[in-house]
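Re: Re: token formats

Sure, here are both.
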Amino acid sequence: MHEFFLYYIKKKYVIMFKHLISFIKTVYQNYFEIASCLSAVFIILLAIFMDNFLELEACPMCIMTRYAFGLIAFISFMGVLTNKLYRFNKLLIVLSSLSGIAVTGKQIYLQNLSSEEIANLSMGCGMPLSTQIEYFGLIGGITNAYQGGPTCAAENWRFIFNFAEWGFIFFITFLLLTCIKLIKGR
């Protein structure tokens, strides 16, 4: 009786796993833009939730990461509306993913510096991003924030990975899935 019960449970999990894989393939093949848009929006909403309810303060690099997710969401949404610009749309998602990878990669690098190296960093993350853009201009503000600083090197939250590492994983995922879609076509 015990063996039959274990066999039944295994069979049920295998069937459930096959259904899940089938669902993921269907979404990827038929609803890629919608799934990309919704997942990027969900990540932004999660970050806003963490700011407001967990009382975390986002550094300028975290804000730039949100903008990269926002670009992916917007471009994906435009891809749903305009089917003619398929390749251009995918190339823009690739560029947005690469910019997100650059920002989160730099933040991960800063977070792994020693305390002595962090103390020697410039104060690129000392001011909010909006203030830096107002003071230095768009390119100067983004460049200054990208240099990083002690605020960006702080690790305030962790669930297996910290927020920058999760962002890096999601940007890599967006990049790889979009490149596969670009290579295979529609």
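Second one below.
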Amino acid sequence: MPRLQLAAVAASVVGVGVSIYLTMVHYAGITPACPVSGTINCEAVLSSSYAVIAGTSVPTSVAGIVWFGVSALLWGWRFGPVHLAWSAVGLLTVLYLVFIEIVRVGAICLWCTAAHVLVVAIVMIAAVMTVSPSGRGLGRGA
């Protein structure tokens, strides 16, 4: 498996972990390990109405578990257009969630940001592997 593809699997697995942590925080009703005042305020973000999937009591972090889990499985297979499409879905979701955090809630959650950075990293890997002539990433042995 190319190194970039392995990196995408690793980022996906870490993303599952972050999303599981956020889901556990939601259901346990505890304060996350994050600042809780000012602009960086996980509690404000995670207790907002946007922290659950509309019309349910299911935290958005469950969608993160699903997205990162599917991503890990996809990256375990041979690289193809589905990787770029799945990454694009993740990126569009991240853009929406960052808008919600900054504009609607007025606070940023560091744990959410960690998940967003992982999605962006996966998108960048998909882009590099798409434009690479060998489809294996840049450089030798990638």
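The chain has one domain: 3-131. DSSP finds five helices and no strands in the chain.
- S.
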